[in-house]
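Request: Have a read of the protein record below and say how the chain folds.
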Amino acid sequence: MPHAFSDRVPSLNGPAFDVSTVVPSDGTDLEFPAIALFVTTGGDLSIVTALGTTRTITVPDQMLLPVAVTRVRATDTTASGIIAFGIGT
């Protein structure tokens, strides 16, 4: 039986099709492109955006960051408990 969203085109407006725990890496992209990140414990977050730009921002605890991301970098990331909300492929 197909899932309820099988005929829907993935959208940056949601809903996310899946979630995944993020292990920051300087050399590996996320399992799937993320439309948002949730950060449990705040700190610095170094990301590569969907446009390929590397950005480092400071986020508080329990932050939902609605930005399209392909990678969370280990270098310069001190935030933890990061969850990616993905649109899948």
